[in-house]
Amino acid sequence: MMPDDVLTLVWAGIVAFAVFTYVVLDGFDLGVGILFPLLNDHGERGTAMNSIAPVWDGNETWLVLGGGGLMAAFPLAYAVVMPAIYTPLIAMLLGLVFRGVAFEFRWRSSRGRAWWDFAFFSGSAVATLAQGIALGAILQGVTVTERAYGGGWWDWLSPFTLLCGVALLFGYGALGACWLNMKTEHGLQKRARRIAAFAGLGLIAGIVAVSAATPFLAYAYYERWFAWPTVMATAQVPLLVIITTAAYFVTLARGRETLPFLLALALFALSFLGLAVSMYPYIVPPSISIWDAAAPASSQGFMLVGALILLPIILAYTAYAYWVFRGKVGTDGYH
To answer: Which of 53, 152, 212, 317 is most buried per CB count within 10 Å?
Structure first.
């Protein structure tokens, strides 16, 4: 490879890392919101909300980094993808706004608390569903005409994209339940453990359904997964999913606290790896590769200096926040 090609791969890795980190970090706090209707009373909901209060807004830093990195390092991909998913993207942002407002106002309005609880749940669910639909819309292929989006307003809506949205709802729900299992005690912890098992079943069903449908979206996907001899390598991904799934349910049944959460994260990592297998080297399937969409090497090199400074800082303060607020959350809201 030429140095410019390596630089493009580095930036693709940075954007992918930011997106994955956002998914797993903001995923569990969105999951807590999705589970709100399944929690019994104001006390349980307050404890669940307090468990994510110190970290939820910092988790969204990675969404900004992923989107900003895509725009700066791969401007053509950004210009093509954004019009293709405007509707789910706007729905996601509105959901995050409703959820953020509800997070603050729920504690200050006892009379309207039920409405704010609903806003927190619906904002979390809408944002999650929109993220899954947007991912499905990109994966099923984006129409490109003369280096611009050439599709229609409703191209993002299909049975496959809705399937991806529902699968992500169960996935974030499983992450949120495992987080509560790890961070809470007594009745709420037991309820979270039961929900984690149910949501885990939905997550696995979603992974299987999306994985079964993806190779038939385009011949290139089918070839990447099943062509010989690459099938010998790609077959390891579903095998690891099976092993991780078994470990997930065994640890839940044994009452473990931290392991189910880590295994749920592993399932997301394996799903992300499967997505990379399907899409690489395209950033906008089926026609724009990461090299086609890349900014000039001089621009990528200049931005990389800033990224190498900022990324360790973001990782450090994120790790510090989780370390400070480690441990259980009591019913009084304190760690």
So the answer is: 53
Structural domains in the chain (count): 1
- The answer as to whether 226 is a domain residue is yes
Between CA 235 and CA 42 the distance in angstroms is: 46
| Phi, psi for residue 151 in degrees, rounded to 5 | -90, -170
* pTM, rounded to two decimals: 0.91
Q: Which domain holds residue 268?
A: 3-324
Closest to 43 measured CA to CA, from 252, 256, 329, 335 = 329
Residue 88 has pLDDT above 90, yes or no: yes
Residue 51 lies in a domain: yes
44-75: buried (b, 16+ CB within 10 Å) or exposed (e) per residue?
Answer: bbbbbbbbbbebbeebebbbebbbebbebbbe
Q: Considering the domain boundaries, does residue 218 fall inside one? A: yes
Would you say residue 203 has pLDDT above 90?
Answer: yes
Helix axes 3-34, 42-52, angle to 10 degrees: 160
Return the axis-axis angle of helices 258-279 and 236-253, rounded to nearest 10°: 160
Going by pLDDT thresholds of 50, 70 and 90, the confidence category of residue 177 is very high
Question: Quick check: is 240 in a domain?
Answer: yes
Q: What does the alpha-carbon distance between residue 270 and residue 206 come to, in Å, rounded to a whole number?
A: 13
Q: At what angle do helices 75-84 and 113-139 cross, to 10 degrees?
A: 120
Contacts of 212-220 with CB under 8 Å at 24 or more apart are 213/160, 213/163, 214/139, 214/274, 214/278, 215/278, 217/139, 217/140, 217/141, 217/160, 218/141, 218/285, 218/286, 220/285, 220/286
Q: Give the number of other CB atoms < 10 A from CB of residue 94.
A: 14
Please, are residues 74 and 283 in contact by the beta-carbon 8 Å criterion? Answer: yes
